[in-house]
Amino acid sequence: MSTEARVGHFPAVDWEGGALPYRVGHRKLGMWLFIVSDSLTFSALLIGYSYLRASNVWPTPFPFWPSIIFSSVMTFCLLSSSLTMVFGVSASSKGDKDKARKWILLTILFGVAFIVLHLIEWKHLIDEGMRPFFLPEHWVKVFTTTSGVPPSPLFGATFFTITGLHMFHVASGAVYLLVVAGRIKKLTHEDVEISGLYWHFVDLVWMFVFPLIYIMSVDAGHHLAGH
Amino acid sequence: MTADAHVEEHFAGSNKLFISIWVWLLVLTLIEIFLAYKPMPIYLMLTVLLGLSIIKAALIIAYFMHMKFERLSLILTIIPMLVVCIMLLFVFFPDSFRSAGLRYQFKEQPPVAPAVEEEP
Predict the structure, then answer these.
(1) For residue A144, what are the domain limits?
(2) Does A1 score more than 50 pLDDT?
(3) Is the pTM of this model over 0.90?
(4) What distance in Å separates the CA atoms of residue A118 and residue A167, rounded to the nearest whole number?
């Protein structure tokens, strides 16, 4: 059977070399593959956290103020930054690079707001006495079970590792977007879209970190209220 | 048939669509915060929260990351492989439950005096 006979089934443009079977450039495909591997990093960390949580007595110490209010506002910042990034990519697809740059700068602003709020929230917890391998004494007292099993001190380790790695991703994303915004006149539309993919991925990870780390650790019974 | 190696520059989706996705994501987040203060068994809460998170993730991937407008071949290359790999990580959980049993079964229950075996 000649190659011509197969053309009807598989368009030559896709499968005969020198073409794009996925209809995306190699850089965009590369970013997708990076996102897949980074998703597995975060999945492994979150599953490791769940493993520890299921095999230990786990404290649930986060109060409505400041932890939940802060993390909710942070979620709002990240979701809004995703929206402004989409507007930036959309403007770039229409060839309006100045408008795209403004939207990307607004995205960076939301990202920086997220990091600042998160660092303030970290400082609250560190001031309470939370460390990667120690819990504050009053938490240990409150969350020890009636049969005398103390809560796992690894609470801090999982919290600081996962939120810290996520914060690092937001920070590197802000630097990446700053470079894209600065060089936007020299970059193609696809380059802008690729930076958007990375930024949305950082938002996507937070959609799992927020419920699993924050919402699942809410002090719903106000056990710590008197301390 | 001409070889057309041109990458699609067109970015589908209107701003109105993206704003409505953003509103949906905010609403789902508010539901999660509300659920945090509803007393319910931890397994039910975990299931509901993860369900909502997966919906949010799907909205972000499909619309913000533009996956809905990509070719099916790209979607099929990336998504199923990722889901299978994450599912494989769940293989560790039986060990987690086992070690919880090893750690706490004697502490959680009052110790029972062992039955004295009598020699025949």
Answers:
(1) 26-217
(2) no
(3) no
(4) 8
